[in-house]
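[audit] Reproducing an earlier prediction to check determinism. Same input, same settings, fresh worker. If the tokens differ from the archived copy the diff job will pick it up downstream; this log only records the rerun itself.
[audit] input (476 residues):
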Amino acid sequence: MSSKQFDVVVIGGGPGGYIAAIRAAQLGLNTACIDEWKNDKGGPAPGGTCTNVGCIPSKALLQSSEHFEHAGHHFADHGIGLKDLSIDVARMLGRKDAVVKQNNDGILYLFKKNKVSFFHGRGAFAAAKDGAYEIRVSGAAEETLTARHVIVATGSNPRALPGAAFDEDRILSNDGALRIPAVPATLGVIGSGVIGLEMGSVWRRLGARVTVLEALPTFLGAVDEQIAKEAHKAFTKQGLKIELGVKIGSVTSGADGVRVEYVDAKGAAQVLAVDRLIVSIGRVPNTTGLQPEAVGLALDERGAIRVDDDCRTNLPNVWAIGDVVRGPMLAHKAEEEGVAVAERIAGQHGHVNFNTIPWVIYTSPEIAWVGRTEQQLKQEGRAYKAGSFPFLANGRARALGDTTGMVKFLADATTDEILGVHIVGPMASELIAEAVVAMEFKASAEDIARICHAHPSLSEATKEAALAVDKRTLNF
């Protein structure tokens, strides 16, 4: 079998991989991308977990379920009357699948536009020789590719609960949680992270009674404590039952549902019986079938690929990015690393600032943040000033009928440099971008406070929170 020659081969077509391949091709490098995701007809479905069973389909279901909740509980406030409200779950899932396909097809189009060679199958290291690497593609057609540079972007897999393997029918990962064929009467969620809260919110809005079990004693421990408390209050008011500090025991699945035995925070034995159970206790790096041993690629104790600050592995000209390496498992972090690596290969100076990577939880209210939390600053002993502004006092939020939450600024006590911005409330995922830009340019809270923001807009809450750092809000 003859080998096809490339400057760069990217293994994995998720957010990190496909973006890395496109950027490498833009820089004049002969580039190939290998990805094995299949659609329901067996055809290529690039985009990785994010596009196929993660970010994109979950947002589609969140949007559909939010429309349903508004119709059932909030339209009347606007003078809109409805009778016999119902949900067609099959049609909702069909719309979600259509959104996913649009993204799959969009990536294939971008490959063609940028002259990236796409290979549908699983990529694995075969050998290293003559300053290059052989990559074997196992798929409908066997291929062998040779490249001077290899970028590994194989992503991550959901972590299963010991003794409770995913069957995607009763015990669900993020994949199965996106494909529940009918609204369950009762739904359990183990883990109150991003996936657990988002999927729990989707099915709660559609009518399921949802119980979230979290092992940690605090809710959303990585989030600023004040913001997390506000979010917890909102979710509880909506009907999500959240139990913290639990210790999960046995999980048994049968034809009539799932039984979870656990010990609650007070030490009492409890049983949760639900129709279906979502397990969202984190993700693990995916190197299955990559055959790193064939070339001596080093992994760490978690199974992640070892890399330095520039995403270089222990092997010359082998790079790794995204969920399969250290750092936050975020699609946009993978994208930034992909661009940076492609530019480094081309002799440029790619850059990723981990301190200004935004985080978002797409619940309602949305939660978004960038930079340090107040508890982190206290732990570091750094002197800071804090200012916050509630959406309750924002005119646009009142008109929207969504005044839950606030914007919070943390700034250096001496220099006024913005150290962190934390938002819980409407459109937090969009509002956080202003804070990311400000922090990347080392802005002060005063800089944001002096910028004119459109009225009426939700972004005025950002300006007012910046003003609050100096205790001079104008509308609260």
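[audit] rerun output stored. Observation attached for the diff report: The longest helix spans residues 89-113.
[audit] end
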